[in-house]
Amino acid sequence: MSQNAQNLTRSLRFCKGAPPPPLHDCRDNTRQPAVLPPSLRMPTPSPPGHATALRITLGVGLRAQARADDVHTLWQQARQALCHALQQASPPHSAGEGEGEGAAAPLMHQLHIVTLAALTHKCGHPALRHWLADAQDWHAPQPPRLLAVPVTELPAQPVHTRSAHMLARYGSGSVAEACALWAAALLGQAIPPTHGPPASAAQPPRARLLLPRIVAANRRATLAVAMSAADAQTLGAALESALAAAAAQLPPPKALA
């Protein structure tokens, strides 16, 4: 049978209801969808009624006599306040659950400390080096990265505390709050203003202060907590309210000489 006759026979079979020949998929199925690295992914909003993991930055102010224990104690106070807020924003548990200090332990893993920020000339302070070496404080495989903050960046940060002494020395009411806010703005991939005037109400916030500065009992160290404005937009209403209540329950800021 000639080639033309064979083609005609196949065409007639198809017209009589014979199944068509299988189609060949010309697409390349070996290619995998592109996956963005974690640093470029936008935070995923939490479902209603569930607390979200907090990507936070810590700002630290230190005197020359400060010790690692001072920073450790300040972080314990801040962590307790944040965990309490997470616990308040979590769904209600059955009777007997969610009570006591042990119930807050899993919530510590929802605090992702991305950056620890301090003034450039304070990054080599023994208190910071020794505290970062204590892995028990982080509940993570490794401590956060240490970020050096130039003194010239402090005045542009919208701090909450207004210490007259700090304003005269650094142009900012709180070193700890300014460092935390500057680091959080970098975390949100928004470059903070350099050598600019303090932020006004008309400017969109680049970072949000979660906890204003906490002052050590011996007044040798301060600590504040912030997060990027992009991350703050993912907070649910319950967590927003709980964080505001936690900040209000902290001791009022004192003038740090």
UniProtKB/TrEMBL annotation:
InterPro entries: CobE/GbiG_C, CobE/GbiG_C_sf. Gene3D superfamilies: CobE/GbiG C-terminal domain. Transmembrane segments: none annotated. Residues 1-49 are annotated as: Disordered. Residues 1-10 have a biased composition (Polar residues). It comes from the Bacteria. Residues 56-226 form the CobE/GbiG C-terminal domain. Pfam families: CbiG_C. One of its GO terms (biological process) is cobalamin biosynthetic process. This is CobE/GbiG C-terminal domain-containing protein. It comes from Allofranklinella schreckenbergeri.
